Amino acid sequence: MSDWRVRAVRASKRPFSRSDNTAPGGEVQPAPEHSMDPRPDQPVEPVALERSVVEAAVYRAGRRVEPPASLADIYRQLPAKPGTMAWIGLFRPAEAQLLEAAERFNLHELAVEDAIVAHQRPKLERYGDTLFVVLRAARYLDDVEEVDFGEVHLFVGPDFVLTVRHSQAPDLSAVRRRLEDDPELLALGPEAVLYAVLDAVVDGYAPVIAGLQHDIDEIETEVFGGDPQVSRRIYELSREVIELQRATRPLLEIMKSLEAGFGKYGTDDELQRYLRDVADHATYAAERVDGFRQMLQNILTVNATLVSQRQNEEMKQLAEAGHMQNDEIKKISSWAAILFAPTLIGTVYGMNFEKMPELKWAFGYPFAIGLMALVCVSLYFIFKRRDWL
Length: 389
Known about the structure:
Oligomer: single chain
Mean pLDDT: 79
Shape: rod-shaped
């Protein structure tokens, strides 16, 4: 095995998240396409025994021919029968299987390594007469109100299409049935398969966009309703929108690259119209997603403003309550001081001393009462003037 194959094998050992098609014991369940089982009475190459081959078929003039017994049969048929196209669908293939396909179809080592490692951004690269396309599919999960993202890699050659999926989405079995029901479109060759996969991925964004729009409408209601948990939901939804933006925005460059090669590579006129229609839908999806991101930023700003206003109102209420408490304390303190003055005077005159000023004075009692009244009235007017009373 050459050095680049060793690197690709090692890279494929890197872990990636399990999707909902992984069994509890860790066994990967094939996607919903028909598995191609080898004939038990014939020797089959190890590659044909891989469970990741979800479906493989050979087409001639847009119609499926006799199903091959193994991938080796497909490899032998292509060069022997001109005008024949093979479409092999792989689901999380083992590195040995993908390397075998790379050897048979003369795929570039860098593209193969990307397909093994996965987690690539959407892109289109041309290696000689083979296109390598990475797409990010998405689907909206209504039960949990979340967006689930998938990834599919396509190797599109002159007489073959090799699809490598790492998740349930997109459902390529539906794409295959659609093309088989339209032999005239399938007869246009591998580019027709590329168009159909692109169309399926882009059309899959429509329910996702509708679901996100519904979530944003709910968030707006929660923001103005004062829900304390809405900030967390805005943040989580913003992350999903950013992820969807990373899936849709590069599609525009992919479609531009395909359109730029229409004349050079002799793309059929009808297929050009189909691809331009996909480009229009991709542009619409990308613009809607960009709008969602801006809307969520505005909602987050409005929510922060409303939270600040509520906090200011609470602080104002606390300040008013504190001010009222201060007024009450002032009143209590003022009356305490007024009542303290006669108490002090009465306490002085109530002391038991034999020799005491004014003790034998006939006007001592009226003087003491008058002094108490004078002090109390003076304190009352002083506190009243200072708005303590």
